[in-house]
Amino acid sequence: MNGTAPHQLLLDQFTQVDPYQGSTRKLRLFQLLLLLPALVVATVAAISGVRTIALAPLLTATSILTGLTFTMALRFWERSVDARRDPFLATDGPRLTLLDDLRAHLTWTVLIGVIGTGWLVIMALFNTVTPPSWFAWLPSFGVVGASFLVAYQLTLVAGALRVFYAAAYGLRG
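Predicted structure:
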């Protein structure tokens, strides 16, 4: 499969190639579990009709987390590429898989962070605009979407800590 296909990052995030089955992919339960807190937060926001005026602090927080994970993603992207040239790592399947998993997870986290930051920017730009009566659902939809994206980004960053902990054992030589 071409690594530049648009859906490749989605496949790498939620599935894993089984090294014993060739190109057979299996679902990653942990990555799906990271969606649960975000779904709960978004559901609570939708049911309770939450409104927010804290767009600036949320925008700041998502921007900082996105920049942090972008820096980490670049580091592991570089390590993942360089590992294929290293004679000790080039044939070490588990270590290469761990580096690739880190790269995919952090890149996905950056993508969600960029989408969440963009969502909050749009909300901040149109915060003072009163929608027409037939478009009255728009502000609550914006808050529900923002709550999902911010919560999902936070759980992805927390999930990265788990992956880093595994990498501390899996990458030591």
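Summary: The longest strand covers residues 15-17.
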